Amino acid sequence: MDKDKKTTILNLTDEEMVNPGNRACSGCGLGIVYRTALKALGKDTVLAVPPSCLTVLQGLYPVAATKLPCVNVTFASTAAAATGVRAAMRATGRDHLNVVAFAGDGGTGDIGIQALSGACERGEDIIYICYDNEAYMNTGVQRSGTTPKGVMTTTTPIKGKIQHKKDVPSIIAAHGISYVATASAAYPLDLYDKVKKAVSMKGGTRYIHVHTPCPSGWGFAPRYSVKIGKLGVVTGLFDLYEIVNGEFSLTGESAKSVGKERTPVTEYFKTQRRFSGLTQEIIDEMQGIIDDKWAAYTA
Amino acid sequence: MHVIESGNVAAATGVKLARVQVIAAYPITPQTPLTEKLSEFVEGGELPAEYIPVESEHSAMAVCIAASTAGARAFTATSANGLLYMNEQLHWAAGSRLPLVMCVANRGVGAPWTVWNDHQDTISQRDLGWIQLYCADHQQIHDTVLKAFKLAETVSIPVMVCYDGYLLSHTYMPFELPEQEEVDAFLPPFAPTHFLNPEAPRNFNSVTLPDVRPDLHGNTAPGYMEIRKTLQGDLRRSLTEIEAIDEAFGEIFGRSGTPFLEPYCCDDADYVVLCMGSLSYQLHDVIDTLRDEGVKIGVMGLKVYRPFPDAAIREALCGRKRVIVFEKALSYGNQGALYADVKSALYSAETRPAVNNYILGLGGREIKTQHLYDALTESINNEAAIGDEPQWIGLKL
């Protein structure tokens, strides 16, 4: 990302698109992600949202927390719904508006991946933001495709999840769309700049995958959301990057970590009850995967 | 203009003349020639619309739902398993009160696989809150598409235009094609009052609670149950709109007068056959033969299945000796769905005709005129022997 154009807390816009007092849980990482992304998107935006924590955050009829127009859609259909909104915008002479899909990890990488893949293959002119809290949190912490290995959920209650996390941004990047980025709720300015860049690249499909700590689902005190999100990045487990027209680059805190010693990932695992069942074998395996990944970054 | 074309093209030309703005579709037999024709219209510049070649029927309906919510006139078409893959979305479209129009080229439902015609696909979708209209020939397909948009946008309820796969979708028949100016006079541009608009932001289809709830101004907003009651009330009231639109259509295009039931030889009929789709026209020959033999019999083609025109059914059928319901679908474990609906409509009448139920043509099984003749003769002559169980026509084993 261009260093000259980085947004700081001093020049971040004061304009809010989310009303205060919404229905998010205390310490919800999505609260940060949603507020920040909508600030970057601005007023000329239409949202499509599937059932998820965001549906709850946005409020119960007849009250809504967002100041943007929003269509709530079925679970599997988010990217197709955004496609339909864009088609209508072209058909009714309002093509300048941002059309944004905002979905959770299950709604994106599991049940919603068919519609998302279709939209990416067609190169639909939409921005798709996935907030990844690494399980079905809204329904009570069931495992999803993006739940990491070893994590205790209500559907992996004894042994923890057996499989590794599905790498959804890489799957989306394989479609060859113009912009793919990752971000973290703990680094909102990095997220803000990435959403701004996505807005500036109007015309193609743009995808941003945001690591989103969840106090109730991950098992930590609400005040640690940002701290834990940062640990996820500085341990090298979740990397901040962007792929602009096929060009990969690390950004923000991840870019700064290249060539430096990283915090052991066990420090991240220790902060959350969901990792309480991890064996030393899994911890070593996870550290090995991170080390290999970062060796490739520096090679 | 007088043309000879397939049923699918009759539908496609209706969609084009309706100036649809967004089309999304996924291929399924026997609907495909309709969407191929539409993509040809769009690519060739004849129809200035967005054509989205989606990756599934679920997404086709998602695109239509979102486009309609955003203020565009939207259309899709499907058949059989494609329709059923949409099921969740169909409920969503009705609950969201979107004036979508969808053509369904009726086809049997797997398993086992069949691509041929019956009505099980749409009959199984009767409880969605959609309006369901059925066509008997190509002219009706074309006209019904135009009337469907008018109706949908008048009552804010989505409309299915159903016609027999292959029997109508792939056969060629002559029909009248109206001029664009005539259609424009009948169907003005789509002008929704609420749509996705940053100037007046609204949150559509958000979570409702079991009870009513005040809004920010202290006014009581409806709960889920009130919203659903409104849909039911508006569906029932749409029967009146169907009549009014039929009349308005007749004034411009000269074809009207049978909004619910299309009778043939029914004025003095003691026996009336009731069915949907092209079968009612196929029965004309059988009716003629039986009339020649002195039997006072006629046939009625039902054009509106949901909302069910029960008052029109009572008015048309009370006073007859016997009603024989022919159906290409079954409510498995019970009876023909239409048969049960007809009996329900007749229950409140003082004098009720006897009613028989015949199931035929499932999975495209050929419906032979002789079989129809035999069934009607049996029903008329051996009425005591036929109970409430549906009788099957054309079985070979």
Summarize the structure.
The complex is a heterodimer of chains A (299) and B (397). Chain A is built from twelve helices and eight strands. By secondary structure, chain A is an alpha/beta fold.
Question: In terms of topology, how is this protein built?
Answer:
The complex is a heterodimer of chains A (299) and B (397).
Chain A: H1 29-41, E1 45-49, H2 53-57, E2 70-72, H3 78-91, E3 98-104, H4 105-110, H5 113-122, E4 127-132, H6 168-173, E5 179-184, H7 188-200, E6 206-211, H8 215-218, H9 225-234, E7 241-244, E8 247-250, H10 252-257, H11 266-269, H12 280-298
Parallel strand pairs in A: 1-2, 1-3, 3-4, 4-6, 5-6
Antiparallel strand pairs in A: 5-7, 7-8
Chain B: E1 2-6, H1 7-17, E2 22-25, H2 32-43, E3 50-53, H3 57-69, E4 74-78, H4 80-85, H5 87-95, E5 101-106, H6 120-123, E6 131-134, H7 138-155, E7 159-164, E8 172-176, H8 180-186, E9 203-204, E10 213-214, E11 220-221, H9 224-253, E12 261-264, E13 271-275, H10 279-292, E14 297-302, E15 304-306, H11 310-317, E16 322-327, H12 337-346, E17 354-359, H13 369-381, E18 391-392
